[in-house]
């Protein structure tokens, strides 16, 4: 073999050796998943659901039901637990999720549906911006009604409008269902109510009604027809239903007028109607779940997808139906858009809402 052929062979072998060395150094990085694959973020972790009310009510019941089903749809299958943080109609819980909890996707909240109203009217206690929460989803809509002891002298809204003494109604705070419904009735129909604030939860108000401390309460329809003491009350004729706020009468209260019917009957001015519409948008939020602002987008996506899948889980749906917990889910993206829209009202409407709900 000539010197030139030997040299050419060495060059070829040198190139082959360099190529093989390159493969040896870099290919294992791509073909060794057991060593280099990243485990799901949520594996081995615990997600807390901060419920803004006391145990036993529908917020708490929904939180615990979701906590049993949602984790199996989250990559890593974390544990989910409920932590009750009542106070100020869930404003304390909302402040915690917004300002204290780390934006890591391990803390979510379930606040009252009308949470945004405390921000809209500028209450200093509301240390959050509803538009900046990462909304995950809701499993229902939140229609409300006013119940009253049947032995009270008020048989209808008309009786309240004509009464010399305002009925005493219980409420957890200024963002609560009861407070807001009563204020809307005052604004649109002219009735007056003596609102007693400060109860820690709805069950405590119900007990107060039984004791006669107060005689009425604004409440969501689902929980009124979904638990005690109301089943027993209805059998005994203990309470009556004076008004409801859906556009159409709920099938469980076919004889109870809607606020929209009463506004037509009492010829409510258009400006007052607009205020009612802005406030009653809160029904769309139901008992929603939201995460801390700044939570990484991929974790928000995982939580939203898991929430949506849990809402279709046949076992969850069956449990909710058995417990008489209404379902009408909406995705987090819809709530995110709604939170922005509801906070962008004309100044004159905001001023009327402030006047109505302000302290």
Task: Provide a compact summary of the structure.
This protein is α/β, with parallel strands linked by helices and 359 residues long. It has helices at 3-30, 33-36, 58-69, 91-100, 115-120, 157-162, 177-189, 202-211, 221-224, 230-236, 259-265, 270-280, 297-310, 314-322, 332-342, 347-357, and strands at residues 46-51, 79-84, 107-110, 134-138, 144-149, 168-170, 194-196, 216-220, 239-244, 289-291, 330-331. The termini are far apart.
Number of helices: 16
Span between termini: 103 Å
- Under CATH, the topology of the largest domain is which? D-Maltodextrin-Binding Protein, domain 2
Strand content: 5-15%
- Corresponding CATH superfamily of the largest domain: Bordetella uptake gene, domain 1
> What is the percent of helical residues?
40-55%
Provide the low-confidence segments as ranges: 5-12, 18-35
Overall average pLDDT: 89
How many separate domains?
A: 2
How many strand segments? 11
Give the CATH architecture of the largest domain.
3-Layer(aba) Sandwich
Q: What order do the SSEs take from the amino end to the carboxyl end, as H and E?
A: HHEHEHEHEEHEHEHEHHEHHEHHEHH
The biggest beta sheet is recorded as:
6 strands, mixed
- Categorize the overall geometry: globular
Lateral strand order in the biggest sheet:
2-1-3-10-4-11
Question: What is the class of the largest domain in the CATH system?
Answer: Alpha Beta
Q: Give me the Rg, rounded.
A: 28 Å
**Category from helices, strands and their pairing:** alpha/beta
């Amino acid at each position: 073999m000539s010197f030139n052929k030997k040299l050419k062979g060495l060059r070829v072998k040198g190139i082959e050796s360099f190529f093989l060395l390159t493969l040896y150094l870099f290919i294992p990085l791509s073909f060794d998943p057991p060593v280099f694959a990243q485990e799901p973020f949520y594996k081995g972790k615990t997600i807390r659901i901060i419920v803004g009310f006391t145990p036993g009510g529908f917020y708490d019941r929904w939180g615990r039901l979701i906590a049993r089903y949602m984790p199996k749809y989250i990559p890593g299958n974390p544990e989910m637990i409920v932590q009750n943080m009542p106070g100020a109609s869930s404003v304390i819980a909302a402040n915690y999720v917004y300002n204290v909890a780390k934006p890591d996707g391990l803390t979510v909240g379930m606040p009252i549906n009308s949470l945004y109203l405390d921000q809209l009217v500028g209450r200093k206690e509301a240390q959050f911006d509803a538009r900046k929460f990462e909304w995950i989803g809701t499993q229902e809509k939140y229609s409300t009604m006013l119940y009253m002891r049947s032995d009270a002298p008020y048989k209808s809204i008309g009786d309240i409008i004509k009464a010399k003494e305002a009925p005493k109604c219980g409420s957890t705070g200024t963002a609560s269902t009861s407070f807001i419904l009563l204020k809307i009735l005052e604004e649109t129909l002219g009735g007056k109510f003596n609102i007693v604030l400060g109860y820690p939860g709805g069950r405590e108000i119900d007990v107060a009604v039984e004791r006669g401390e107060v005689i009425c309460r604004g409440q969501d329809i689902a929980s009124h027809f979904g638990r005690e003491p109301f089943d027993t009350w209805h059998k005994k004729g203990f309470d009556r239903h004076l008004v409801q706020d859906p556009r159409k009468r709920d099938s469980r209260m076919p004889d109870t007028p809607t606020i929209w019917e009463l506004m037509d009957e009492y010829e409510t001015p258009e400006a007052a109607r607009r205020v009612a519409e802005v406030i009653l948008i809160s029904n769309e939020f139901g008992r929603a779940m939201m995460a801390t602002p700044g939570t990484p987008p991929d974790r928000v996506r995982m939580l939203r997808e898991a929430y949506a899948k849990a809402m279709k889980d046949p076992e969850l749906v069956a449990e909710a139906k058995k417990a008489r917990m209404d379902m009408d889910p909406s995705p987090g993206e819809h709530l995110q858009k709604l939170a922005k829209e509801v906070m962008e009202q004309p100044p004159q409407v905001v001023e009327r809402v402030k006047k109505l709900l302000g302290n």
